Amino acid sequence: MNDVLAFARGPLFYGSLIFFLVAMAFRLFRVLALRWQVDRAKPKGNAVEGAVVSLLKALLIFPFFPGLKGLPQRSALVFFAGGIFHLSLFLVIFFTAAHTLVWQSLLGFRWDPIPTPIIDGFTAATILALIVLAINRATNPVLRLLSGPSSYLNLLFVLTPFLTGFIMYHRLIQPYNAVFAIHMLAVDWLLVWIPLSRIAHFMFYFFSRPAHGAEFARRNAVP
Amino acid sequence: MSGEEKIESALREFLERKRISRRDFLKGCGVLAIALGLSQVDGAAKVALALATKPRPPVIWLSLQDCTGCTESLTRSQSPQLLNLILSDLSLDYHETLQAAAGAGAEESRLATMRDYAGKYVLVVEGSPTPQDGGVYCVLGGRSNIDVLKETAASAAAVVAVGNCACFGGIPGARQSPSGGVGVRDILGNGVVHIAGCPPIAEAITAVFVHLLVFDRLPELDGLGRPLETYRNTIHDRCVRRTFYDSGQYVKSFDDQGAKQGYCLYLLGCKGPTTYNACPTLRWNGGVSYPIQSGHPCLGCSEPHFWDGGGFYAGQSAPLASPSGVITAVAVAAGAALGVGAILAGRAKSRTTSSPAPPPPSDSSSQEEKTR
After folding, report:
1. Over 50: is that where the pLDDT of B369 sits?
2. CB of A170 within 8 Å of any CB in chain B?
3. Where are the domains of chain A?
């Protein structure tokens, strides 16, 4: 298993990361290079302010306060699960002690990790949130119509690194190196899968929210 | 005289002959019993009985491409009386560092042991075999190390590889090493017992011989050929600083406040979570300490390719290979160029078509438009 682990941490990770970078840049610039519709109407508000407000609201407020949207109770739970899932995802990827070492290796510098027990709680929250989202997708009649196999595979491929990471940290299954190898293989595969799937929304989101916010603000609407 | 009295008498006679106190003897047997995974009381009695009554196998100790650190670890152990007890009776018939004979006489003693004890002697290999270029990088008595290794292993009762070099190639097998060292298993196949480490703990080496004496068979091995009794757990499992890892308290540099407090060394590159060895339980220098306890991260020296494992201070989770800034920039630029190129090519194609209506977007582009 050591050879598998070394391969997953070495050449496979390298190849996956290069594919991820090329493919994500391809997708982003393919959208940015599309013709943008020119709005010739006289602006009624500040577009930049709208872009910033829209992005900040989307990142900090709406995911955690579903009541603001006046949603029914079940939708509120799913909404909240989505919010917690994305927050946990961000914290676990960037602030787990082990992951700060990965970032240090990639960027040449690192930042302080969040204490492991807190990250552990967020990891558990992510796993639970993913389960809630999967159940919702499987039971909600509208979502069922919209969902294909790739929708469930998205959830599975994101869940696997979290689950294996959680197992590794708590050493629930031995040998540790075998779980570590599966964890790394799952991460490598996720890097390949993301640009091919709708998980790529994590990148587009940071463009679409400000774009929508700017359009709203030009019409003096609350983004 | 009853059986128990006979054993007692044999033990007394043995201790008198070896000039060792009963207390020291039983204490050492207790340490070995722990190393074998036995209970300290019953296990120590079993070990004591085996040491006092059973004959030792002859040993041929081959030194291939090595630094002799493993021999140093063994001979400089803090329990020399116990080791002498085992080694002196082990009939160490051939050991380049320790034997008195030299040159042709030394080689003759090896051949004599092989001839007289065929199928009974234990072959210990320290250092890595180097098959590259016909084995010219390590020559014993004018012969290739590979020839000597195969010849000596052919009639051995057991083969024990001692140290990371003998087990997995170690430093002579690291990237860019000209001699291309490999593990003994790469030459002789499976069945070789690996006492991994750089160097291995003396008691871990001794434990294999004692296991042979006590149980008349080799110990149970893990997937990498290491005795489970010594290599069952990771350093992290039994680490003295484990509580700090669990509570997220880390040393961030060797001279910070965390280092003074004895916090976890994970962020300084500790390989404890992925390294299987008994350092936290057996420890070094007579059980005084081990690297992590002394303030240095584990290097993972009992694991394969530890020398090429991404740097001693790079972190256990860090990727072993990652693209440089230039390669990253080239990858992003290539992706961007392809993306823009795809759109421009689509526009050019639409201009050449005679249809006044714009061409229908592809599936993926329509999806992206939805996203926008």
Report:
1. no
2. no
3. 2-30+67-218
Give the minimum alpha-carbon distance from A115 to chain B in angstroms, rounded to a whole number.
Answer: 4
Query: Can you give chain B as a three-state secondary structure string?
Result: CCHHHHHHHHHHHHHHHHCCCHHHHHHHHHHHHHHCCCCHHHHHHHHHHHHHHCCCCCEEEEECECCCHHHHHHHCCCCHHHHHHHHHHHCEEEECCCCCCCHHHHHHHHHHHHHHCCCCCEEEEECECCCHHHHCCCEECCEEHHHHHHHHHHCCCEEEEECHHHHHCCHHHCCCCCCCCCCHHHHHCCCCEEECCCCCCHHHHHHHHHHHHHHCCCCCECCCCCEHHHHCCECHHHCCCHHHHHCCCECCCCCCHHHHHCCECHHHCCCHHHCECCHHHHCECCCCECCCCCCCCCCCCCCCCHHHCCCCCCCCCCCCCCCCHHHHHHHHHHHHHHHHHHHHHHHHHHHHCCCCCCCCCCHHHHHHHHHC
* pLDDT number for residue B1: 58
CATH class of the domain whose range is A2-30+67-218: mainly alpha
pLDDT range class, residue B86, cuts 50, 70, 90: low
Residue of A102, A115, A208 with shortest CB distance to B318: A102
Partner-chain contact B223 A24, CB within 8 Å: no
Mutation target for B interface from A4, A92, A177, A194: give the one with most B CBs within 10 A.
A177
B115 and B82 in a common domain: yes
Query: How many Cβ pairs closer than 8 A exist between chain A and B?
Result: 155
Residues B111 and B208 in one domain: yes
**Residue A25 near chain B (CB below 8 Å):** yes
Question: Would the pLDDT of B35 be above 80?
Answer: no
The pLDDT tens digits of the residues spanning B148-206 come to 999 999 999 999 999 999 999 999 999 888 888 999 999 998 889 999 999 998 888 88
Specify whether B215 is located in the same domain as B263: no
Domain-terminating residue out of B170, B204, B231:
B231
Measure CB to CB from residue A34 to each of B267, B335, B343 and give the nearest one: B343
Instruction: Indicate the residue among B293, B308, B323 that finishes a domain.
Output: B308
B117 and B183 both lie in a single domain: yes
- Would you state the pLDDT for residue A28? 92
Provide, as residue numbers in chain A, all residues whose Cβ is less than 8 Å from the Cβ of B344: 33
In a domain? residue B340: no
Domain identity same for B224 and B302: no
- Residue bearing the bigger pLDDT, B221 or A45: B221
Structural domain boundaries enclosing B251: 236-308
Q: Are residues B270 and B131 in the same domain?
A: no
Q: Do A1 and B223 touch (CB under 8 A)?
A: yes
